[in-house]
Design brief:
This protein is mainly beta and 184 residues long. 15% of the residues lie in helices and 49% in strands. The chain is globular.
Length: 184
């Protein structure tokens, strides 16, 4: 079993810089092409990684201000699992919404697959949180509202993942670098 430290970020630029320094590529899902109710699981692909979102009773994508965001159909935890290329970083805007998709201030708890937990009060859809693993890949995250004030639904927007490109992609990058060296 490998162990790793999880580094937390509250700044998107710092998360991007850390990801770049570690040699990972960052891909973002902003849910723009989705809307309405979805049965479990709702899936998407980013950079050779498949994300799969589930929640008891299904999922719902609705407008928060002018941006679509992924949430649950009931006030229950939202889990996103990752398969394919290893994910070392996950970031986004994690917050709570009411039935009409208006942001409500709430305690937000994010649990990473290895058991690492981040809990904090969030009252904005633009609040950024990012997590980067220094060793083991991140296989899932769960967003919950442990001390929900009324009916509040865990919601995420602008989800980004940091992955290491597949070996075939690395080989192509290496060949491109090799051919550049030969042309000089």
């Amino acid at each position: 079993m490998s162990s790793a430290a999880i580094i937390s970020f509250t700044n998107a630029a710092a998360f991007g810089l850390a990801s770049s320094n570690e040699g990972t590529s960052v891909f973002t899902e902003n849910f723009d092409d989705l809307g309405g109710f979805y049965a479990n699981p709702l899936t998407g692909d980013m950079g050779g990684t498949t994300w799969s979102a589930t929640a008891f009773g299904g999922l719902f994508v609705g407008q928060v201000s002018s941006s679509p965001a992924l949430s649950t159909s009931f006030a229950v935890p939202l889990t996103i699992q990752f398969t394919g290329n290893d994910v070392y970083g996950v970031s986004g805007n994690f917050f709570a919404t009411n039935e009409g998709f208006s942001v409500v201030g709430n305690i937000v708890k994010i649990t990473i697959g290895d058991g690492t937990v981040h809990t904090g009060y969030v009252n904005s859809s633009s609040a950024f949180l990012g997590f980067y693993s220094t060793g083991a890949a991140i296989t899932s995250i769960t967003l919950s509202l442990p001390f929900s004030f009324g009916f509040a639904y865990p919601t995420i927007d602008n989800m980004s993942i940091a992955t290491i490109p597949a070996p075939s992609a690395l080989a192509l990058i290496g060949l491109a670098g090799f051919s550049r060296r030969r042309r000089r």
